[in-house]
Amino acid sequence: MQASLAQIEGMWGIIGTQGSLVASTVQAVSPLDTGGRTPVNPSINYSQSKVTFGSSTNFPIGFFSNQLSDRLQSELRLADNLGVRPLKVGDPGFDDIINEGTVKWAVTVEGELLVIPKFVSGREISHTVITRGEPVLTAGEAEIVGTSGQYILLSISNYSGHFQPSRDSLERGITAFSQQGVDATNADLIKSRE
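RE: above sequence
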């Protein structure tokens, strides 16, 4: 079955190694016929997602799963012990983490942009902390400056060793930051992988 972007709501998503779903030619697969691929978490109601990526229908809409899942429990334990929690743009503490250095960011499958500091007390925090190991639409690292609702994206990359998002998915991150009021007009784009 083929579906357009408008018809995707409620369909069963499949995680490909490179985010295999494409907006204009989505191959619907039932939960019973996953073709040997890893299904997206069936407990999440993806039909409630309010994700929009501008007016284009050319964005790939695949999900990216954690490629280092054997490390998840220790990564979550470290972040919990350090008091790390994902923040939205403008949340209390957001200004502090963006002005202290590089942040890691992800767009969840529900379309929510979240960030965490890259380092806390000299320890690197993993991308998987953002979603507690759940798949993402895209992820990366960013340099942001600003305060009190006035934010500028200096640079953004799709670097995530855990989720390994495609280069094309970086546009989702830029759009997500822009939709949250972060000026991405002059941001340096750093595409980390093919």
